Amino acid sequence: MIIVLKKGLLIIDRGSREKEVRDELDEIAQIAKEKGGYHYSNYCFLEVVPPFIEEGILNCIRENVDFITVVPYFLYPGLKLKESVKQTAILANKLNLNLVITKPLSYSQFLPVIILERIEKMKKDKNILYKNSECDVLIIGHGSSDRRARDAFIYTVNEVKRNFRNVGHCFLELDFPNIEQGLLDLIKSSPKIILVMPYFLHRGIHIKNDVIKEISNALTKYDFADIHISTHIGVDEKMINLVLERAKESENRRNKTWSR
């Protein structure tokens, strides 16, 4: 007799009060559920607002899953990732769960492709006729005090560089260069146009307010008009494939361990 195990998938995000963030995560979780063959799939938050990690895990247990795959939905390794993994591991041990935790989303071949697709869509929507080789691009990351987070971000930035005339990077907070300096560095190279990619997972408060405000403030100091801002990463088939890829990697490692 073949026993079909009930798999649970739990996505851990940092947390946001914005409804759009919840809507995006709900859509990602449900598509991943269908595409990955999970009995149950949902999300939870590390901080800011519930459902927090413990509630997310308890929700999985209530669905009578046989094991849980936890995906830290973070673009970078860093302090928030560490805390998510720590809390999850403590709960898994306390509740004696069959649970695995995947790697974060960083260092994936999907991420540079998504950046390129966001920029191409913006060019099409705004009827920008410059070839990529004529365009300067600024990729804005969140920023972290953890060196590993910076290294992961720069890795993705470097993967994009060969496609454009110039590709610069900057950070909203906690690291340098900041947005003003990032724009200035590109403007000094006499660009025809600057295309900005906010390298953020969701349309949270940083995208709605903070990034736009910092760009606007910088442009009051520098005379440059032809600048355009693309959408964030958001819900994307490649991001769902990345979630499932990370999940499969960890599940396969677990299965190999159990088979010994």
Please specify the SSE layout and strand pairing:
Elements (H helix, E strand, L loop, with lengths): L6 E7 L5 H18 L3 E6 L7 H10 L4 E6 L6 H17 L3 E3 L8 H16 L10 E6 L5 H14 L5 E6 L7 H9 L6 E5 L6 H15 L7 E3 L7 H23 L1
Parallel strand pairs: 1-2, 1-3, 3-4, 5-6, 5-7, 7-8
Structural features, described:
It is a single chain. The chain has two domains: 7-104 and 235-259, 3-Layer(aba) Sandwich (Rossmann fold); 110-229, Rossmann fold (3-Layer(aba) Sandwich), CATH 3.40.50. Helices cover 47% and strands 16% of the residues. The model has no long low-confidence stretch (mean pLDDT 95). It is an alpha/beta fold and 260 residues long. α1 (19-36) crosses α8 (237-259), α4 (110-125) packs across α5 and α6 crosses α7.
Summarize the structure.
The relative contact order is 0.15. With 260 residues, the chain is an alpha/beta fold.
Poorly predicted residue ranges: none
Q: How much helical structure, as a percent, in the residues?
A: 40-55%
The helix count comes to 8
Distance between the termini: 22 Å
| Helix-strand topology string | EHEHEHEHEHEHEHEH
Please state the average pLDDT score: 95
CATH architecture of the largest domain: 3-Layer(aba) Sandwich
The fraction of residues assigned to DSSP E strands is: 15-25%
Largest sheet properties? 4 strands, parallel
User: Based on helices, strands and strand pairing, what is the structural class?
Assistant: alpha/beta
**How many domain units?**
2
Radius of gyration: 20 Å
- Side-by-side strand order of the widest sheet: 2-1-3-4
* Oligomer status: single chain
What's the overall geometry?
elongated
Assign the CATH topology of the largest domain: Rossmann fold
Total strand segments: 8
Q: What's the CATH first level of the largest domain?
A: Alpha Beta
